[in-house]
């Protein structure tokens, strides 16, 4: 089902958790709400689920106005951050809960068949008789998902569902959830603060900051065209370098980095430099290599100290550096944001001079 | 000496279990000593004293109709009172934890008063309140024809008064720590508020309610001060077992008094054991 959110405002006391959020999610889409904690993403999710009210604005799900519709009538599946399984019920009873509380309750044979099908689907059929405290975190997560899917939801909301899993399980469960989404086709909204998770799973990402959606785009577009300095810093592995723009040239003094040509007004600005945009060369310089790590076939990953800033960089293919070796840095190009929020592409000066 | 050396020198290749208290043997010894001197020895005396009557004498002393009636009243009224306290205590705990209303702090503080009040004072107050000419007794008599003071109803009423805080105070911290997300999950799954309470909240609280019930019941069985004023103490009708013990003591029938005490002890133990076992069943699957 499509979801259409218009100008949602939500205040808690004097602080506004959401300051006018609009969002539209297409049918069958996998959308991530990505932002640091306190950006309002969980509040937005709770408003969609009907667990929280909004002070103004509207939510339409499949074209239907959701104002005043309580959570229990929305038919939205929610997987909570800590799963919120019912501890006094077996896994079977947890999954069956949504079917048993229905006004037109299916027969118990029908419920049993559906619960087993769901447990089969989430690949834990053997856990039927266990209690939540007797199974692992990854298994609990699958059970929570099965429980949410049992009501045949028209929309699935996932609230940081992978946070409690260890890294290895997390990666696997992430791929599996995405493939499950692809086979079921349920519109899904994921709340997360982990950009890697959002980029791996979602079709589009809504980046949230301070109660607003600052950019809503596909992963590639977010990397290519970050709308604000916040997005540029939050998405991808860019390092923020403060600089001063004078006459269309960004100077990085006192950092030992060559200046960039940018079309920005004079004043302070910040460049967001990705590892691949930095070129590191052998030679005496004021920057020094702190770490050089080779990973298989690819170029070595470096951490370079320039002044008091640590930069992530990639070495040229085949090259490697000694730890502590001094080196020279130049930037191949990067997004530069002026303080006003104006954005421009920085180009190395040398290139301009040669061109 | 050799025993402790054997315990310290653990078998090779086996890690010694981690213990919460250092010096396991010493601490266990002290614990048992205290338990013995405070709990076991007095109870043992209670066990030995009635045996002076001989098995047959003991049996006769306990099967006196007056004793049986008193035991029935004590345990029956305590059970009913604890049962009636369950919904009331839950409601009070719920109000204190979940609701924000003016006077909540006062209610919270007042809840403990039955703990602090000398039971005799409570008894006199309750009697005055429920007597046929009392504030509560008069209208109840006029409207429902219900006589509270000097009847079994009065006994139950007094026992409810002393038992209520046990249930409310047992439930309160558990309710406070209960995460809201289970209730929210139930709502998103389509459960109404009533279904959520019945299927999610109450089952989660059940072991705690049972603990509170056990405490309130145990307290009510042994209650003396608040009951003797309101009960009227008619032998065979409103005479509670603890009062019968006092009466026998006043008649210098120490063995007979201890016999009633022993019977109460045995009955209480059986009830509390049953509650504990039920609780274990309810907690199955939970850590």
UniProtKB/TrEMBL annotation, chain A:
Domain of life according to the entry: Bacteria
The question of whether Cytoplasm is a record keyword is answered with no
| PROSITE patterns from the UniProt entry | ABC_TRANSPORTER_1 (PS00211), ABC_TRANSPORTER_2 (PS50893)
Query: GO terms for molecular function, please?
Result: ATP binding
Looking at the record, the residues that make up the ABC transporter domain are 3-235
The record's listing under Gene3D superfamilies reads: P-loop containing nucleotide triphosphate hydrolases (3.40.50.300)
Q: Does the keyword Hydrolase apply?
A: no
Key words of the record? ATP-binding, Nucleotide-binding, Sulfate transport, Translocase, Transport
Q: Which InterPro entries match?
A: AAA+_ATPase, ABC_SmlMolc_Importer, ABC_transporter-like_ATP-bd, ABC_transporter-like_CS, P-loop_NTPase, Sulph_transpt1
Quote the SMART domains the UniProt record gives. Answer: AAA
Q: State what protein this is by name.
A: Sulfate/molybdate ABC transporter ATP-binding protein
Q: Which organism is it from?
A: Roseomonas populi
UniProtKB/TrEMBL annotation, chain B:
Q: What domain of life is recorded for the organism?
A: Bacteria
Q: Where does the chain cross the membrane?
A: 31-48, 69-95, 115-136, 148-168, 197-217, 224-248, 254-278
Q: Which Pfam families match?
A: BPD_transp_1
Please give, as recorded in its UniProt entry, the membrane topology of this protein.
Multi-pass membrane protein
Say where the protein is mainly found. Answer: membrane
Subunit comment for this entry?
Answer: The complex is composed of two ATP-binding proteins (CysA), two transmembrane proteins (CysT and CysW) and a solute-binding protein (CysP).
Return the protein name: Sulfate transport system permease protein CysT
């Amino acid at each position: 089902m499509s979801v259409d959110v218009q100008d949602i405002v939500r205040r808690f006391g004097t602080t506004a958790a959401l300051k006018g959020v609009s969002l539209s999610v297409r049918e069958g889409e996998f959308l991530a709400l990505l932002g640091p904690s306190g950006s309002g993403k969980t509040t937005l999710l709770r408003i969609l689920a009907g667990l929280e009210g909004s002070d103004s604005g509207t939510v339409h799900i499949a074209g239907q106005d959701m104002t005043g519709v309580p959570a229990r009538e929305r038919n939205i599946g929610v997987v909570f951050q800590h799963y919120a399984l019912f501890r006094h019920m077996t896994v079977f009873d947890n999954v069956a809960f949504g079917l048993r509380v229905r006004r037109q309750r299916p027969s118990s044979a029908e419920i049993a068949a559906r619960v087993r099908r769901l447990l089969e689907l989430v690949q834990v059929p053997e856990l039927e008789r266990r209690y939540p405290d007797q199974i692992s975190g990854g298994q609990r997560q699958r059970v929570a998902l099965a429980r949410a899917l049992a009501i045949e939801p028209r929309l699935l909301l996932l609230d940081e569902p992978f946070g409690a899993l260890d890294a290895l399980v997390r990666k696997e469960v992430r791929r599996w959830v995405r493939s499950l989404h692809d086979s079921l086709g349920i519109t899904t909204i994921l709340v997360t603060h982990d950009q890697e998770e959002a980029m791996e799973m979602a079709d589009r990402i809504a980046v949230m900051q301070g109660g607003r959606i600052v950019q809503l785009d596909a992963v590639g577009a977010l990397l290519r065209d970050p709308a604000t300095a916040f997005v540029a810093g939050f998405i991808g592995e860019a390092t923020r370098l403060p600089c001063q723009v004078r006459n269309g040239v960004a100077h990085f003094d006192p950092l030992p980095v060559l200046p960039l040509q940018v079309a920005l007004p004079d004043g302070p600005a910040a460049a967001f430099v990705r590892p691949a945009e930095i070129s590191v060369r052998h030679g005496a310089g004021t920057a020094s290599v702190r770490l050089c790590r080779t990973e298989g076939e690819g170029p070595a990953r470096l951490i370079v100290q320039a002044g008091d800033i640590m930069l992530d960089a990639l070495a040229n293919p085949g090259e490697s550096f000694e730890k502590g070796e001094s080196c020279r840095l130049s930037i191949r190009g990067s997004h530069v944001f002026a303080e006003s929020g104006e954005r421009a592409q920085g180009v190395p000066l040398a290139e301009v001079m040669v061109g | 000496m050799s025993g402790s050396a054997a315990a310290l020198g653990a078998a090779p290749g086996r890690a010694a279990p981690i213990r919460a208290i250092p010096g396991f043997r010493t601490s266990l010894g002290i614990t048992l000593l205290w338990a013995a001197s405070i709990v076991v020895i007095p109870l043992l005396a209670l066990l030995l004293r009635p045996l002076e009557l001989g098995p047959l004498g003991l049996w006769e002393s306990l099967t006196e109709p007056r004793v049986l009636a008193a035991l029935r009243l004590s345990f029956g009224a305590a059970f009913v009172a604890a049962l009636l306290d369950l919904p009331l205590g839950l409601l009070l705990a719920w109000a204190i934890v979940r609701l924000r209303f003016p006077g909540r702090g006062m209610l919270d503080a007042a809840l403990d008063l039955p703990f602090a009040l000398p039971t005799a004072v409570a008894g006199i107050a309750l009697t005055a309140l429920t007597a046929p000419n009392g504030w509560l007794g008069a209208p109840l008599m006029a409207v429902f024809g219900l006589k509270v003071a000097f009847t079994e109803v009065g006994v139950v009423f007094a026992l409810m008064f002393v038992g209520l805080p046990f249930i409310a105070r047992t439930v309160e911290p558990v309710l406070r720590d209960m995460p809201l997300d289970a209730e929210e999950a139930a709502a998103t799954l389509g459960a109404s508020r009533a279904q959520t309470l019945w299927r999610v909240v109450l089952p989660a609280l059940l072991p705690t309610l049972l603990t509170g019930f056990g405490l309130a019941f145990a307290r009510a069985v042994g209650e003396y001060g608040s009951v003797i004023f309101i009960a009227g103490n008619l032998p065979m009708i409103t005479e509670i077992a603890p009062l019968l013990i006092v009466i026998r003591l006043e008649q210098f029938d120490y063995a007979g008094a201890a016999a009633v005490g022993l019977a109460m002890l045995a009955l209480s133990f059986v009830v509390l054991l049953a509650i504990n076992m039920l609780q274990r069943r309810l907690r199955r699957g939970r850590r």
